[in-house]
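Anyone up for a design puzzle?
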């Protein structure tokens, strides 16, 4: 039912909206769409990410059970993100790594941490049909 003009909506807590803008716009390259006193909305690789000002921030970054990100269909897009992470010295929780090596589900992955301890995972499957 979703077509290419639809966007998935993701909402996460943020302790400081200026930090969120710095990280998402100037860190990983998202585009700011709107900003209000209590939230900021980004175009996050074609989907809608909203950082809501909150005091309920995790004490530490933990991958499971909650994280979000992008499964890139093209290896060059994943490689471009890796270069950006290295160049901008973004905080890495895990990786880059190769998971499920030697299986049909083999993929590269990296987990990042934003300033509010939200975990972002980016992937690239050898077979892009397996990203779902």
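Challenge accepted. My sequence:
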């Amino acid at each position: 039912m979703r077509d290419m003009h639809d966007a998935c909506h993701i909402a996460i807590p943020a302790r400081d909206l200026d930090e969120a803008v710095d990280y998402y716009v100037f860190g990983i390259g998202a585009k700011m769409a709107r900003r209000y006193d209590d939230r900021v909305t980004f175009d996050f690789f074609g989907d809608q990410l909203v950082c809501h000002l909150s005091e309920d921030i995790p004490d530490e970054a933990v991958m499971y059970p909650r994280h979000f990100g992008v499964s890139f269909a093209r290896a060059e897009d994943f490689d471009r993100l890796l270069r950006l992470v290295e160049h901008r010295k973004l905080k890495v929780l895990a990786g880059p790594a190769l998971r499920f090596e030697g299986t049909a589900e083999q993929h590269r992955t990296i987990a990042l941490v934003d300033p509010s301890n939200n975990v972002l995972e980016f992937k690239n499957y050898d077979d892009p049909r397996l990203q779902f």
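A detail worth pointing out: The two ends are 15 Å apart (CA to CA).
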